[in-house]
Amino acid sequence: MNLSYTEEQVMLREQIQKFCETEYDFYKREDVVKSDKDFDDKAWSLFAEQGWLSMPFSEESGGFGFGPIELSVLFEEFGKSLVIEPYLANVVLAGTVLDKSNFTNKSELIEGICSGLMHVSLAFAEPANSYEYLHPNTNLSDNNKLNGTKSLVLNGKNASKIIVSCIKNNSLSLVLVDQDADGVSFNSFRTIDEQTCAEYIFENVSIDDSNIIATGDEAENLLVEAINLATLCVSAEAVGCMSSCYLKTVQYTKEREQFDQPISNFQVLQHRMVDMFIDSELAKSLLYKAMLEVDSNSDDKFKHVSALKAHVGKFGKLSAQNAVQLHGGMGVSEEMMIGHYLKKIEEMMIGHYLKKMVAVDAMFGNADFHLKAFSK
User: Fold this and answer.
1) How many Å apart are CA 38 and CA 85, to the nearest integer?
2) CA separation for the pair 331, 175 (Å, rounded)
3) In sequence order, which residues have a C-beta less than 8 Å from that of residue 320 and are 6 or more positions away?
4) Helical spans, DSSP H, in 296-344
5) 3-state secondary structure of 149
6) Dihedral of alpha carbons 226, 302, 314, 339, sign
7) pLDDT per position in the chain (376 positions), as tens?
8) How far is CA 349 from CA 34, 45, 82, 95, 243, in A?
9) Which burial class, exposed, middle or buried, applies to 47 when counting CB atoms under 10 A from its CB (0-12, 13-18, 19+)?
10) 3-state SS assignment for residue 113
11) Could you report how far apart the first and last alpha carbons of the chain are, in Å?
12) CA 43 – CA 25 distance, rounded (Å)
């Protein structure tokens, strides 16, 4: 197994790191969170200019043809800086479905996503269906009337187009719906990690045949592939969070003194940080394996992604909890998070890492769900 990144992949990582250090510090992120827009227009335009929005799309669709490895690099760096731009919703979820489909009008939609001028979301989760994404209750009747409810639609507030999974004649279908179509309503809300989500309700929404993206086996394959890739991406994001939690905690304990010595000298705290280091390094190893398996499209790719997701779901939260505790509880109060106290940015971010890890565990199947999937 080749664990070395190519020169192009290293350059991509350095490019993203530079953006996060110069254009997206903690205070900038807090400004974005507090805005009505839910993401930064300037940053999103920069994503388009740098070609990041075009990365995973095939060259036939106007993209660069990059794959899971490059996406993992990008999301790992996003995790370190807690970037909240809606990349996952637009490019990974909706973009993967469109790019891999035989949908006639996909080129126009992908061009809009790559330019940053169009937002498209994938609506696949339902309130009562847990993680059974292939068996939705949302129904498309024989006369193409869509009825049902979709929950946790990432970036649903800003999406002008929604890809909806539904059942028609006992077969899974993926259909494209305009946000402002008759019979469509939604409520927007924020998740614990400050992501924008929406719950969509469809009541007798008319669907033209030209807006049916895929049906049957094709629809199932598209949905499974998109969710698996998204699971890999949020897991890579979690790996970045775990790495940052460890490094920031080590640095903090070297600077914080108690009983006239750095608290990093206390053996019980050293043991905690060793555990954080081991969990972080194991997560990186599982990420390397998973992204290579997905990149090669191996038969075991789903199992390796499940192994990674189960690990970060359990130990990612534990690492973040340890980081909060070793920082003396810093980062869990609102005053600390918005910087009313003159503390370092690194300290203020710790509570946000914990929130991110809680959200990552719940997305696309929690640790228990993926542990069972891996053991099958």
Assistant:
1) 8
2) 42
3) 241, 242, 245, 350, 353, 354, 356, 357
4) 301-311, 317-326, 334-337
5) strand
6) negative
7) 556 888 999 999 999 999 988 888 777 888 888 877 788 889 999 999 999 999 999 999 889 999 999 999 999 999 998 999 999 999 999 999 999 999 999 999 999 999 999 999 999 999 888 888 999 999 999 999 999 999 999 999 999 999 999 999 999 999 999 999 999 999 999 988 888 999 999 999 999 999 999 999 999 999 999 999 999 999 999 999 999 888 888 887 887 767 878 777 778 788 888 989 999 999 999 999 999 999 999 999 999 999 999 999 999 988 888 888 877 755 554 444 333 333 455 556 777 888 999 999 999 999 999 999 998 7
8) 16, 25, 9, 30, 13
9) buried
10) helix
11) 25
12) 12
pTM above 0.85, yes or no: yes
Q: Look up residue 220 and give its two tokens.
A: 């199932």
3-state secondary structure of 267: helix
Count of all residues that appear for the chain in the document: 376
Rg for the chain, CA atoms, rounded: 21
CA distances from 275 to 2, 201, 319 (A): 27, 45, 8
Distances (CA, A) of 264 to 31, 141, 153, 320, 340: 33, 64, 43, 17, 27
Residues 241 and 336: their CA atoms lie apart, in Å, by 19
CA nearest to 80, candidates 285, 359, 275, 350? 350
